Queue: 2 jobs
Job 1
Amino acid sequence: MEPWSTRDPLAILMGPRVIPTGTDLLADGRATDGSDGHGPVTVTGSKGLMIDTACLQCGTPAGSSLATFCRRCGLPYGERPRADVELPSCPICYQSVDDDGRLPSLDRFGLRVDLVRHRAEHDLYPVGDDDWLETMREGDRIRIGRWSAPFDVVRRYLVTGQVDAGRGRALAHDAIVNAMTQISRWGPNSLVFGDQPEWAAARAAVSELMERYAKGRR
Ligand SMILES: [Zn+2]
Ligand SMILES: [Zn+2]
């Protein structure tokens, strides 16, 4: 059995790791650690964050510095994703990686990082107050005042709604309010009008929730 096969990908995200040289590129294509020829680099000077490389196509951590290709999709590490695959997205901020399999670093302007490092950067750059949000969680639902709604749907709205202030945000907001009021109380086929006090109160509760959640954003 290969030594990495038993390792938990999440555990890999938590612990300090050595970054194999040449895994990240500056926007102009230069390797970040190629300039001085010294081995592992740290991403954040303050915290000394060091993590594994990851597959640019599916985001799976390498798990071993000896592995040369992804055990999940077979792509060699460091290689661009194929054009015909669906690219992975961050479960924290829901952003998909770009065509090169990387995202702009949250920590260092001009640096592009793989998904594993991007996720680790959220430790220092959270999208909202998730500790607080978790306190209202009930299984796969979240309690919002006297209502409840699917946790994942609400969290996605709280995160993406901070950046998308357009029509998409309004629709998501209404969908959540509908889920909180109409469906849970009167069944999916009932009609609730937007000016009803119950609906208005649920709307206000969701708006408040977003405001409070966003306070944890950095
Ligand atoms: Zn892969
Ligand atoms: Zn993210």
Job 2
Amino acid sequence: MQSVEDRYVQSRFSNTFPRTVELTCPHCLKVAVLEARSWQEHGHEVAASEMTCSRCEGSVLFIQLLTPEATVRENGLYCYPGSARREAMPGVNYLQSLSGPLARTYDSALKLYNTADWGASALMVRHLLQGLVIQLLGETHRDQPLARQLEALPGELDLSRPLQDVAQLLEPAGTFGRQFDDEAAIDKVSADLLMELAEQLMTYLVVMPGTMEDLKKRIATAPVPLRRGSDVA
Ligand SMILES: [Zn+2]
């Protein structure tokens, strides 16, 4: 079940249940209006409706959470299968802090993707990668091809920076090191911070390399599209 923000609801029935919702249809992958004929309440906490895509007539199940008064709960709308829309990655605010223009390029790439304009979206991603490496490397590598710029990144950037200072926190005299001496005194706030620290480290050391390997395998085995105009044997 995927959450559907209220801003995608275009119109409502008089009892405020969603009547039309705009989303990227999971069947035809186009931005489309899905329309409900009716809603059925199940118990006192949810109502369900099967909405139909105005473009391909594919159906999507919608679930609406209800308040104790049986009215529509704010931001309580979910759908299955989920919208084919790509949302911005978590942490996109850090990209915004690094560079407003880069964040806008990423936003444009997402918008093109979400209108199924695959070619334009891919070109925008290339533009984004070029902008990103120049932002990180500086002007010295500006005239190199993108592949060379990417190769230069590990030599130019201090990739160990996220790991620095973490060791100090865990030393016996460090913030967490001291707390380990008296585990009964560790409260939820400290436990949350320590858990988050471990998760960030695992993301950097284990998850990111693992997902990158998987992605490279998928790229290696993805079917290569035939060039337009080439002979089909
Ligand atoms: Zn559709």
